[in-house]
Amino acid sequence: MPTLNSLTADNLLTEKEILTILDLAFKLKAQKKAGKRPQLLAGKNIALLFEKTSTRTRAAFTVAANDLGAFPEFLGKADIQFGTKESLEDTAKVLGRMFDGIEYRGAKQSVVDGLAQHSGVPVWNGLTDEWHPTQMFADLLTLKEHFGYLKGLTVCFVGDGRNNVANSLTIGCLKVGVNVVIIAPKQLQPAANIVDIAQQCSQISGATYFVSDNIEDVKGADAIYTDVWVSMGEENQYEERIKLLKNYQVNEALMTATGKKSVFLHCLPAFHDLETEVGKEVYHSYGLAELEVTDAVFRSKDSLVFDQAENRMHTIKAIMVASYHQL
């Protein structure tokens, strides 16, 4: 395939591009495990533009760039004048003159699209409110590592079915032939535009797409995926979300209800115990020691959450390499 150039949204990817990047990620991961660091981006300068906080995305891009011989530069919300004294277009043009690539993590999809339009260099979406493509690649790599194949698997996302992780997981899976089930209360089901894209992908690949509010529809799932009930920027909605989602918690009974040996997936962070400030606040306010997933499931041998976290780095490496080298 030609170079990927920018990666701003999952719906812009083809099946061939997804599978090629996954193959490259396998290769780069094996090389890293063998102690090899091919300098495929030697001398390139990478801007890491963060308007939202991060653990995995920031760490993964930083280590991936260093491993490949590039120089990452973190630019936090308070570090530059982007959005306050300087427009998106002007910022994009300035950064494009100085850097060879830009990662953006923030709220608005229009921002990452604008950076790609005006910067003249590859731009990668590290998360927006609509899409989270680097997470999708890590998820698919994890599934393929565990099962040995992708086409024909069934992934069931349980919880807030209209968030960015659910959107990216849905489109990425359907494009490569993985069946997708979204189980969420009606108020938190996918937006109409996402459903339209998903149905188009389903028709092309032959994978099935199903949205339900019935928790019993987990039956037959090879993987159960969940995410936090309250995303960044929605911190005032805990009471409402708990009421809506308390019956959608991923627990041992739900994992058993799949009727097969299913794996558990989560993009992290996860509220599965009381070892965080937020977890303690929720417990004191609502009496819940676990939210979207129980500690037993999170720590079980069927949980692949830390494989997913590591694979963020390997797939981000592949995405960046694909932006500069024809594959």
UniProtKB/TrEMBL annotation:
The keyword Cytoplasm applies. Belongs to the aspartate/ornithine carbamoyltransferase superfamily. OTCase family. GO terms for biological process: citrulline biosynthetic process; L-arginine biosynthetic process via ornithine. Residues 11-145 form the Aspartate/ornithine carbamoyltransferase carbamoyl-P binding domain. One of its GO terms (molecular function) is ornithine carbamoyltransferase activity. Keywords: Cytoplasm, Transferase. It comes from Brochothrix thermosphacta. PROSITE patterns: CARBAMOYLTRANSFERASE. Residues 151-322 form the Aspartate/ornithine carbamoyltransferase Asp/Orn-binding domain. The lineage of its organism: Bacteria, Bacillati, Bacillota, Bacilli, Bacillales. Carbamoyl phosphate binds at S54, T55, R56, T57, Q81, R105, H132, P133, T134, Q135, C267, L268, R312. Reversibly catalyzes the transfer of the carbamoyl group from carbamoyl phosphate (CP) to the N(epsilon) atom of ornithine (ORN) to produce L-citrulline. L-ornithine binds at N164, D227, S231, M232. It catalyses: carbamoyl phosphate + L-ornithine = L-citrulline + phosphate + H(+). It is an enzyme of class 2 (transferase). This is Ornithine carbamoyltransferase. Its EC number is 2.1.3.3. Its main location: cytoplasm. Pathway: Amino-acid degradation; L-arginine degradation via ADI pathway; carbamoyl phosphate from L-arginine: step 2/2. It is found in: Cytoplasm. One of its GO terms (cellular component) is cytoplasm.
